[in-house]
Amino acid sequence: MPRLKGKDTSSITSADSVKAEVFSSVSTKEMEVVAKRLRRHIITMTGKAGSGHPGGSLSAVEIVTSLYYGLLRHKPSDPQWSDRDRFILSKGHAAPLLYATLAECGYFPVEELLTLRQLDSRLQGHTDRTVTPGVEMSAGALGQGLSFAVGTALAGRLNSQKYRVYVLLGDGECDEGQIWEGAMATAHFKVDNLTAIVDNNGQQIDGWNRDVMNLSPFNKKWQAFGWHVIEVDGHDFTQLIDAFNQAKLIKGQPTIIIAHTTKGKGVSFMENNLDFHGKAPNAEEVEIALKELE
Amino acid sequence: MRETYGKTLVELGKENPDIVVLDADLSRSTMTKFFAGEFPGRFFDCGIAEQNMVSIAAGLAASGKTPFASTFAVFVPGRCFDQIRMSIAQPGLNVKLVTTHGGISVGEDGTSHHSIEDLSLICSLPGFTVIVTADAIETAQAVRVAATSYGPFYIRLCRPKVPLVHNENYRFNLGKAVAMRQGKDATIIAIGLMVSVALEAAGNLKRDGIDCRVLNMSTIKPIDEAAIIKAAAETGAIVTAEEHLEHGGLGSIIAQVLARHSPVPMEFVAIKDTYAKSGKPAELLQRYGLTAKDIEQAVHAAVKRK
Ligand SMILES: Cc1ncc(C[n+]2csc(CCOP(=O)(O)OP(=O)(O)O)c2C)c(N)n1
Q1: CB contact at 8 A, A250 and A196
Q2: ipTM of the complex in this document
């Protein structure tokens, strides 16, 4: 169930949002519970759809949970609230994770998750901002999210709005030249109301990053581009939240959190298994996975 | 046809040591993985970096290699149009762009993965030869012809398995339309998986007393003007069918030929100025007007205007 706290009148900017309420943060213990539910949703949704991307959804569960349940100021009843913190999913194939999170927060009914990828569903194979409440960016073509986030953050600065922008990148996605164009621009424009996170699960489609296109020294690359870099265990809520809070204090420069994760995390036969990047579990696999996630 | 592409590349690799292959982290889907397995030293996975990939391919071609570069059709040419324009098209380099997952039969992945503008983009580039194959048999041959003809080529394949429309004796003839069926009342000109749909429509129309010619226009650039002019003269009505936006693809190219040489009533079976959403391939073809029934209606409309 969504956890809502009382009206936050200080931040209300439009008549529409008067009734909307800001989502409150929960303890890391409760986050563990949410995370498990999200993992179960990811399995059930992709299983039902018969296609989709479980691996890169499962790896980012803790990252996205800590944001929506710990950091973001957002109102599920008013997705367009103009002062909301923005979460931009650049690796749009992790849509099942974002949809599960939005549903759990109350943006739309949890039952709707089972319509994933079906004709006329609001839950498209890759994120589509024209149909899904709470989705900020139409993605699925990798590499564009950081630039989009920079624009979003600059608009906040121009409008003197206090919102923060979070953007989640894949590590394989960082092969794209545009990521580094975006990285340069973020530092150049001294965008400090933006935090980037890399879901550093070490894999892409054709194999391990180091074999397909070596990114290392990854940390040093971001530093050389003018970023403050924090590395964390991407499945550890305390480390993630500390990093997000630390990022807020860094002024005059952008921060990136390199979150070390495991692709397919939480389901034994999906962990580090390239096959489950873009393949849904079959009925039997769904059953086994759900048992593991009890 | 993707499997066939992958296997043909391996054969070509054995015959010609100058053939090299590039991919952008999709070798498991484009099937260049077969070549990668056989010739690891001549395979370059560029990671998720399409712009980089096509310019690397151009550099390889400029020094005598015959590069095949593959990924999904939505990313090449869309993602790297200027790189293709200046690195490949303008200098006329010997690069073969072979893309898979053309059209909306990609299915559930949705808008970001549907390729509905690629033919318009690539056909706009001077000097490119553009081919859309209708089945696996044609794919194998077209890829071979591309490998042995100098210059920039774009070959578009689709994701789903499609029925064979050609038999083993078929010989792909670059730049020539293939008459799949003779007819005198109207001509359906189709590409890709729409060729088999067109044949189905022609079969149904026969029952309504309309005798349709069906042309597989697998080379859409340079287009076979003579076959179009002949079809217009002999059948008096033309319907085009393609898994692409109505603007800039097969229909537009043929309309230009007809407008110049022999205007006849024409109808277009294509996606109408919109983005398709997620769904099963067959559901999408139906939703966006790409079924045999849609072709039949278009033929009726064109014939009525004769
Ligand atoms: C521009 C572009 N090229 C190719 C693809 C196909 N594709 C989808 S996911 C993926 C791999 C992504 O790897 P990564 O960013 O590491 O994501 P993760 O492993 O976390 O799922 C690729 C190549 C795409 N979606 N967009």
Answers
A1: no
A2: 0.94
